[in-house]
């Protein structure tokens, strides 16, 4: 996460909030070998690289990437590194968001805290709600629907 993030020159939000709806899914042109689950007796981390798309279909337009790692529930209490990085590259939004799992319970719906952003998402905070879209797929091929509810600081006030 960036400690200092300038406000994007390309995108100034006219409202102090933004809602986005996206999907995280396995890239179709890459095998599942880009997902590495470390055995529990080792570090116990689940590391992944996924794509962000506009829709749930595997032919949907790609709008960015989702990368990160999660520590399983058994070791979660000792970890502060359950973070996902959502990177966007579209005409409307260019930048990234950092979202942190507050409590991972391996449910069909997980709520993450938006802890920062860069570019179009500079200084964003809010909530990211992840829901599983298809229970029939393997763990490595699960698609998630992500609803982002973002708030931005008031850019209209002038500093003296």
UniProtKB/TrEMBL annotation:
Matching Gene3D superfamilies: Allene oxide cyclase-like (2.40.480.10)
| Any GO CC annotation of this UniProt entry | apoplast
- State the compartments where it is located: Secreted, Extracellular space, Apoplast
* Annotated InterPro entries: Allene_oxi_cyc_Dirigent, Dirigent
Keywords linked to the UniProt accession: Apoplast, Secreted
Q: What is its main location?
A: secreted
A GO biological process held by the record: phenylpropanoid biosynthetic process
**Pfam entry (one):** Dirigent
| KW Secreted (keyword) present | yes
Q: What does this protein do?
A: Dirigent proteins impart stereoselectivity on the phenoxy radical-coupling reaction, yielding optically active lignans from two molecules of coniferyl alcohol in the biosynthesis of lignans, flavonolignans, and alkaloids and thus plays a central role in plant secondary metabolism.
By sequence similarity, the record places it as follows:
Belongs to the plant dirigent protein family.
Subunit structure comment from the entry = Homodimer.
The protein here is known as Dirigent protein
């Amino acid at each position: 996460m960036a400690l200092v993030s300038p406000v994007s020159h390309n995108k100034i939000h006219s409202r102090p909030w933004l809602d986005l709806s996206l999907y995280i899914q396995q890239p179709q042109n890459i095998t599942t070998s880009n997902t590495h689950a470390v055995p529990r007796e080792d570090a116990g981390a689940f590391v992944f690289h996924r794509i962000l798309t506009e829709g749930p279909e595997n032919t949907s337009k790609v709008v960015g990437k989702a990368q990160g790692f999660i520590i399983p529930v058994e070791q979660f209490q000792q970890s502060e590194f359950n973070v996902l990085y959502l990177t966007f590259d579209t005409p409307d939004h260019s930048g990234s968001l950092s979202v942190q799992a507050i409590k991972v319970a391996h449910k069909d719906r997980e709520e993450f805290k938006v802890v920062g952003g860069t570019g179009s998402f500079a200084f964003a905070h809010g909530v990211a709600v992840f829901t599983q879209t298809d229970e029939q797929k393997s763990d490595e091929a699960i698609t998630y629907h992500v609803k982002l509810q973002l708030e931005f600081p008031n850019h209209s006030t002038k500093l003296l």
